[in-house]
Amino acid sequence: MEHSEAERVGALHALGVLDTPREERYDRVVRLAQQIFGVGAAAVNLVDADRQWTKAEVGLPGLVNTPRRDSFCARTVEHPGALVVPDAAADDRFRTNPFVRGDPPVRFYAGHPLRAPGGERIGSLCLTDPVPRELTAREQAILAELAGLVEHELAAQHEIDHAGQVQRMLMPRTAPSVPGWDLAARWAPARELGGDFYDWWVQDGRLQLHVADVMGKGLPAALLAASVRAVLHGSARYNDQRAAVDRAGAALESILEDTGTFVTAFAARVDLGTGVLDYVDAGHGLAVVCDPTGAHRRLCSSGLPLGVLPGSTWEPRTERLAPGETLLVISDGLLDYFPDVPAALARAGRAVADSAGCEELVERVLRFALERGLDDDVTVLALRRAG
């Protein structure tokens, strides 16, 4: 099936790969291609509406953006098969090309189209050399196999990006309106997908809060996080905090055991009239209540993480948020920037004192982590009682 130019360019842009940093998985393919074919250069080039952008290259230092009119690969995407030019200086299509007239010149070119997941030809894995040569049928087949590796990486990244979008959509988009209370949260995965999540809703005059952290990073952690979130959400709808976490732990026991994974979780229900907080802390241990000066008291953990010990149960605990106090829950990704947990929580307390509201607070904490680079997923949730 042939695609229009608009469809082709749209498919390229949908991949989200243009103008991204170099990546070893693509560099590895071009190095391999150069070695297999013994050519001067190899590259992964993507053809945009008016330019060629180079994702990976070897032997072509400094090549990033090329006008489309000068691109050999722009010709490659016009046809379903490989484009082989044994001697560009003797080919009417290319003899005046600036690369052919360059130093060193491009005399030999071979490119195999790269296709997006929908089949649109979006670029080329290409070979160039300053000496004319032929490419045998067997060599063309090898070039096609290498191009398939690049296509696989592009498609895999596209799927991960899409999964990341879905995961972000599953996070609560806006905080529920609760008069007399201020609520906000932020989440940033270390990779495209993460194992942290938060959740909230209001039911019968009480605010339910969840913050959890699945061991690990990336796609496996994200898949488990989706299951944990759904189970915790469903259990908490119809049970008190102890029963909700106990039932969630039992329901998740086999999958966590099979995957060798555990989950730390903080589940709380806040009476919006009295400020009484009933909570279960399953090995999370990173929830504090702060007064307006930043002085804080750490909420005690009430059991092991989910998945550590089969048959575990969790003891509920009670706290009260006085007017002006803030509940702050973070994930352990923030601990990477401090020598120990008390230092991290003390810094969090200062952020509470320095922030006028919860939106400012969570943004301040998350920005602190982002400016230092994320090695782990980071989640921060804040609830402040007016006063």
TrEMBL record:
Membrane-spanning ranges: none
InterPro entries, alphabetized: GAF, GAF-like_dom_sf, PPM-type-like_dom_sf, PPM-type_phosphatase-like_dom
Domain GAF: 21-164
Pfam families reported in the protein's UniProt record: GAF (PF01590), SpoIIE (PF07228)
PPM-type phosphatase domain boundaries: 178-385
SMART domains reported for this sequence: GAF (SM00065), PP2C_SIG (SM00331)
Protein name, as recorded: PPM-type phosphatase domain-containing protein
Organism: Kocuria flava
